[in-house]
Amino acid sequence: MHFTSEQRFDDGVVERPFTFGDIPGVLWTPGSAPGPVPLILMGHPGGLDRMRPRLAARARHAAAEGYAAATIEFPGAGDRPRSAVADQARADLRRALEAGEPVGDDIVDRLVLPLVDQAVPEWRAALDALLALPGIRGPVGFSGGVISIGVRLAVVEPRIVAAGLFAGSYVPRAIFEEARQVTIPLHVLLQWDDEGNDRQVALDLFDAFGSKEKTLQANMGGHTGVPPFAGEDANRFFARHLG
User: Fold this and answer.
1) Are 123 and 149 in contact (CB under 8 A)?
2) What is the dihedral of CA 61, 66, 68, 74, to 10 degrees?
3) What residues contact 119, with CB distance under 8 A and at least 6 apart?
4) Structurally, what CATH architecture does the domain formed by 2-80+116-242 represent?
5) pTM for the predicted model, two decimal places
6) Measuring CA to CA, which residue among 168, 203, 209 is closest to residue 186?
7) CB of 153 closer than 8 Å to CB of 162
8) What residue spans define the domains of the chain?
């Protein structure tokens, strides 16, 4: 992990972009802390440069609660190599939507499963490097999307003890089966009128989770209409489970 620059915000939060192999990422840490702090991994739908202002805002809220936050670029996004399989699946998805046809399982599997298979080992390797840094410790939380990546991480990564997931996107049937194996506490955010996502799929996935503690927060509005208090509720969720 190689840090490429450093910026300190007026609230004291330090932002440090890094490269991990050929994967870009960003680490945010509180300006001052009495000792090592827990870590929240922040998922996103890809395009780190485009998403960075929103990610930084989320990270600064986390830092205000005493947590470090980190993210890495999505496979196939930004300057990372494109996937011909994913590009073809996206084209097939657009054609189905434009024709008013249902999106078949084959399209969803080709679009999502290779992404999950590649992204999850990358997140776990980055977590190894992040927890080796001074000032950062477990426990670890995961926050954000793509939700299928969050589901897989919740199943295979024992250092992640709680997850705040953003409902939405297409979910393969195989991920539903994995969701039944999830046992960590969950806080799932759903925008009820999200124009790009299937509400019923999100509800069915929430029902499939095996966690004894799981909360669904559904708010009216579209994809970008998340109310400010939703972030405050997510912070309280992580405070309960990360300390």
Assistant:
1) yes
2) -30
3) 74, 75, 146, 149
4) 3-Layer(aba) Sandwich (3.40)
5) 0.93
6) 209
7) no
8) 2-80+116-242
